[in-house]
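For practice. Any example?
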Amino acid sequence: MISLLIVDDEPMIRKGIRTLIDFDALKITTIYEAENGVEALEIVKKNKVDLILADINMPKMNGLDFVAMAKQISPSTRIAMITGYDHLDYAITALKVGVDDYVLKPVSKVDIVAVLHKLIAKFVENNQEKVALTIAKEISGDHQNDSTMKQTLSEYINKHLVDTTFSLQELADEMGYNTSYLSQLFKKLFGVNFREHLLHLRLEKCKILLLTTNLKIYEVAQQIGIDDSNYLSACFKRVYGISISEFKEQQERK
């Protein structure tokens, strides 16, 4: 029982996908449609969506913003972008922030079936892993294993990414852990400490906003949970080796 959300502002593309693809053969039993990112986000909030096919260039909310927010709501959802050559750079950027694949317009039945097979394979693999972890936990009675704990921590962090006051202490309180223990566990699971990981996520979201909006730096800072635009600029330069303005200039030249 797999659900699919098709997001495209062109009705003919949505209709074509629904008409041409044998969803029964793919075990896709529920199909949602949306004509823009805002409408699609509401569907993700209200329903269990396993797979998403989304156009990268849409009105109201573009595909990159949509998938970034959808991933925060449902990290396990598998996503492929539909894009033209003129937006290929955005699709490549999307892969870096958690999108699983992309397909170039004009799309054909073969293209859509192929990308759906890839998404389904990743979805099934993830579900099988979850089932195996659950069984192992029930049999052994041990604590949550590392993979499950890492996913749980990621979900908490994504939920609070724009909260400027979010801290390791707050995360520990929400999860019922000692702060010192959680700090050591976090470093073990993610390879970096909590603050570094949180900053990395916020800076990656910053890059998306810089690529897809005309927001001023202080407005970008507000949307990624940083309350000081100067601090954001300094962190960006330290992590990526270039300033925000240099980054934007590089992208505009591509």
